[in-house]
Design goal:
The complex is a heterodimer.
Chain A (H helix, E strand, L loop, with lengths): L6 E10 L2 E11 L4 E5 L6 H8 L7 E6 L2 E3 L4 H6 L2 E4 L11 H6 L10 H17 L15 H14 L4 E5 L7 H16 L3 E6 L2 H7 L2 E6 L2 E7 L5 H9 L17 E11 L5 E11 L3 E5 L6 H8 L7 E6 L2 E2 L5 H6 L2 E4 L3 H5 L6 H6 L9 E2 L2 E2 L1 H14 L16 H14 L4 E5 L7 H16 L3 E5 L3 H7 L2 E6 L2 E7 L5 H8 L12
Chain B lengths: L24 E6 L10 H19 L4 H14 L1 H26 L7 H18 L5 H30 L3 H21 L33 H18 L1 H11 L1 H6 L4 H28 L10 H11 L4 H20 L8 H20 L2 E6 L1
Antiparallel strand pairs in B: 1-2
Helix pairs in contact in B: 1-13, 2-3, 2-12, 3-7, 3-10, 3-11, 3-12, 4-5, 4-6, 4-10, 4-11, 5-6, 5-10, 7-8, 7-10, 7-12, 11-12, 11-13, 12-13
Classes of the chains: A alpha/beta, B mainly alpha.
Chain lengths: 512, 372
Amino acid sequence: MNEPHAVEMRRICKQFGALVANDNIDFAAKPGEVHALLGENGAGKSTLMSMLSGVYRPTSGEILIRGRSVNIRSPKDALALGIGMVFQQFRLVHTLTAAENIVLGEKSSVWRGASWMRRKTEEIGAVAERFGLKIPVERPVWQLSVGEQQRVEIVKVLYRGADLILLDEPTSVLTPGEADQLFETLRQLRDAGKTVILTTHKLREVMEIADRISVMRKGRMVRTMNRYETNERELAQLMVGRAPAGVMRPAGRPPGKPLLEAEGLTVEAGKGRTAVRDLSLTVREGEIVGIAGVAGNGQSELAEVLAGLRPWSGGTIRVCGREWKRASVRTAIESGISHVPENRMKSGMAGSLGIVDNLLLKTYRHPERSRFGMLRSRRNRAWARSLVERFDVKAAGLDTPVRQLSGGNQQKLLFAREVDRDPKLMIAVHPTQGLDIGAAESVHRLLLELRAAGRGVLLISEDLDEVMQLSDRMLVMFGGTIVGEMSRENADRERIGLYMAGLQDAPGEEAS
Amino acid sequence: MNGKAAAAGMDGDAGSARRRPAVPRLRFEFDPVRTGSPWWMPLAAVFAALAVCAVFIAAGGTDPLAVYKKMLTGAFGTRFGLTETLVKAIPLLLCGIGVSIAYRISFWNIGAEGQFLAGAMAATAVTIYMPDLPAVLALPLMTAAGIAAGGLWGLLTALPRAYFQVNELISSLMLNYIALLLLDYVVFGPWRDPGGLNFPGSPMFTADQSLPAFGSTRLHFGLVFALAAALLYAFTFRHTRWGYELRLIGANPEAARNAGISLNKHLLLVMLASGGLAGLAGMAEVSGVAHRLMYGISPGYGYTAIIVAWIARLHPVGLIVSAFLFGGLIVGGYSVQTLGLPSATSEMLQGAVLFFLIAGAAFGMIRIRRVR
């Protein structure tokens, strides 16, 4: 080998306790290429990147940068080696300007007067211009769009002299238009001789941007290949390990009575922001209604309102024909709404409590579970045990803090709780986020079982494949309202993409 | 590959993957997820505190071992010492349970001192304004007044927090000073005993207004209150629906909201209970020990109770044990005065114990690892 690799990772293993996140990984990226690291959520891509950026250290194995063996102990070490990482969640201080964020943490100068800042701002501007990155350096970050914030992050790593740029799921927060712009930037970086490594689970992006592709699955490296040697179908197979058949989706009965009717719903999100505006939707018995959309277009707020967690300012909500007067979780629970929230450990579970306590969360008021103000402990334990068995939750014991369960088992537990209540309507928000394929499939199966039992499901997900695979009807949310609706038969990925980007106005009626 | 040739490396640490350094280097990793510290941590904190205080005592020219021995025998060695220790443990246990309830839902009530004083004053008010009630009426009424006043004093912290997001640490601390000044006002002013030779205290309680004592000791019926409170506390959190709701709020308020639990409602209820227990302690102290309201009625029980609660990790049995130990520490502090040391020695120890407890909790989040 004449020219050393920009990065080479040899026999890298990383363990977190009993979990093997990276198992004997060999990985290399050449200078001046865009290298995509493809894999499902939980395949170990981010872990691998984190070891390059100094967040984690490998349990064993060797890392070579430009042919030299190195020991990356911290993000500072990584930066000194010219490695810069753009995280999925941006690390920006919202009240500071873009330029201030970029020089933050710089230790070269104690005195930071106006002239120093002006000089720095000019330098930053020059760096940004060289790579064709337009960023408003003088504006506070909170005023910037997500795409602009990401560009600030990229300029930050470039300004610090990185020539190996890692991006973790860079498009997950972007609209398709912004993603195109990002790809343009990445090409320019590559042409300027920088090495770009990005992680993603989106096949189309990989085919569009990457020069070389490494596919990971379940902590192992499956294969590395050039883009022109492969195609989407092959990549998908490598990624999931078999043809992505998904779960069988039996034909449903025609939908029945409406369970949930929202009309003209408007939700204020504070600080003068209207999260949901004039939104109407109906979910009927025995159907799955999917809502697609880029995060931050009002889906979370909509789900919260329907779960009774958030008040709304305009419009009406009727559940099973009965109109809601005000936001109340108790009302939502009692009218048979189950809710799988988007961040299960943040709002769906109490991590330090055991399985029994977490299963009791929605039903502890029921006379079956508590009487005369006292919990019926023995009965509850037996009930919890039966649920754990029925939903195949793997746990050491009923008192194990649920924090210690794997993501898939946590989600199974949450579904056990929500499904066991025999809900009329299930609101599932990003139900398979962070789950491996097996766990995701069992979640999908549960949703389809609910549908077959004549229950309604409102599925809110960023994963378009999931929405398309499960839904009877698909809605696309943009800017707080439904901009597109289509039946399963008429669903068309490209048009959904346009709706998601807000590039197409509400269409003529196409739904069945 | 030319990697091996470049062993000089970046930052001078390249190649350490292969060469083992002679002295294993230790690396400290911060891991905030690791919150549970080992069970021996409170004990270690106590011993560390004893060791550090020993240095100060020795510097003062006294043999620390003799001091500790004196404290030990003074607090637990004699029948008198033991009952005195129990007498001190009563308010510590009641206040300790009180703050523990609040800490269970992450409400940082440090106002047990003020709630204690409010309870003591309310109980005394009954004796001042209804002096001739028989015991069957006077004692229940005083108890109720003590609990109610403590609870209301607690609400004064909870209400602003619930509706205006006022930080409870500040408001509960400030309310301590208000209660203290109020106490000074009543004992120096309107409630001062006319026949008390200018002593800042209320008239002595009658036998009907005093909690019965056990035998000839100073140990009084308040012990039953305290143990019953510990039992109730344990039972509530383990077996009742309310206890479940509180556990849920403590573990994850967001999840509790998802279960349809009103956080504000429970905040107010918890502070009623928390303050009520401290108020009961205040009532028991005036009615069972001092038999009057007087200047300096509390030597800081409400503050010591915070340490009691933390060293017990809010666990009911632990609370009983640690209240007993800290009661002994106070009594032991009095007994070392014969060695020429100030009774503040015990306060120094208390402070050191708290310091090491907090340090222990912080270090519990740090993992030490040998660098390969």
